[in-house]
Structures are given as structure tokens and as C-alpha cells.
């Protein structure tokens, strides 16, 4: 937020008081143990609340902030359940406030570039696409109260990983016509997910999401998209975006990136 002109961080709330205090001191703001305490103390000084809590706590915190008349940014997913999501939507509607889900892939440079290629039809119509988002197995002791290890609190890779790519694809192609899903389970938890979608225009989209790789396996995301007149591929591990033309030639693409102030 310090990079956003006109924005000011006024308070931080966390049940881990030492963490809240450290962040507050670093950014020159006040710190609190609960959201209620922060809302009560800061009142009209707050225009918006950014909710960065574990997934299962999103609905309660977002609904509370909206009812108190604050705009809300909430980490993805919006909520762990449909009922929780509907409560948030209703609270935003009743309060006349904005509620934005932080689906970052819509703003990621390589994905913004892909969206523009599809929108402008530079390679003709999209015929098929494959997206993936994979990482190492969740390890005990790496998240607060083990929430990432509990599917009833994190929602599995479907809610933590898959949702990134599905949101991006829906934002570009609209609602899917059909889908079929298969998954791999480990100790009763879904660990790896493969979903095949069909979108309008008979566009076939495959999305893979998993966190069952060895602990030394690096995080990786990317896409491969086939068009009438070529193909486009992005791989995060090599930070490369490559365009393959129908005439047999290919080229590395220089993806436009936003300017980051020196203070970053």
C-alpha cells in the first residue's frame, strides 16, 4: 500500500500481537488484537479493510467489515462455502459498499498479455488451452494452527490453487458449458486435481492443480494455448513467454510490465 498514491495504512489487526506490532512499527500505524478493536478505535479513519486471513475466516470478517460500512478486499477464495459467499454479497449490497476478491492472475503481466492476444484475435480464435499450478506438499508446522493442512479450513487445492486459473479463464471466456474432474487423494484429502472444461465456441480448457510434490519441488505455474494461427506458452520456472507461429517460426515475447517505484 505504500506504493499506492493516496493510500495510507492506518492499522493492522492480528491475534498474534507480536506480529501485528512488528508490522505496525514498520509501517508507522496502530496495531490491534482483533478486527473489532480496530474498527472501534479507528472508525471513520478506515475506508477499506484488506482481509488476509485463512480461508475459513473470510466470511465472518468480510461480513463484519461491510456491515460496519467499510469497503473490503478479501483474499481468494471469497469464502469457503457458498452460504458464506452469499452472506458477503448480501452484506455488500445492503451496505452499498465494494467487495473485491483478490484474484491476482487477472493482473499478472503474462496473463494480461494472454487476455489481450485472445481479445484482439492476433492469432485467430483460441481452440484449446492448458493451465497448471503445482507445488510441494503442504508441511505441518508451516501455517497458523495448521489451517492449510486441514481441508475443512483450506478447501484443498481446488480452493487454494485451482481457483486462480479458473477465475482467469472465466474472466476471459465466460461460463463453462460443461466440465469433468478427477483428483488424487492422500490421507483423505484431495491433493491433486485435473479438470477438463468446455467453453463457448467448443474451446477445450484443461486445468491442473496440485500440492503433492516432494518438499524440494519448486512452485510452478503456466499455460499453453493453441490458436488458429499459432500457440503461446508461459512457464514461471523460466520466466519465459514464447510465441509459436503457424509458419514454423517462434520468438521470445517481451511482456509489458508495470513500473515499480524505486521505494519498493
UniProtKB/TrEMBL annotation:
GO molecular function: nucleotide binding; oxidoreductase activity
Organism expressing this protein natively: marine sediment metagenome
Domain GFO/IDH/MocA-like oxidoreductase: 113-232
Chain ranges of the Gfo/Idh/MocA-like oxidoreductase N-terminal domain: 6-103
Keyword annotations of the record: Oxidoreductase
Stretch forming the signal peptide: none
Pfam families referenced in this protein's UniProt entry, alphabetically: GFO_IDH_MocA, GFO_IDH_MocA_C3
Residue ranges, annotated region (Disordered): 243-264
Protein's UniProt name: Uncharacterized protein
InterPro entries named in the record: Gfo/Idh/MocA-like_OxRdtase_N (IPR000683), Gfo/Idh/MocA_oxidrdct_glycsds (IPR050463), GFO_IDH_MocA-like_dom (IPR055170), NAD(P)-bd_dom_sf (IPR036291)
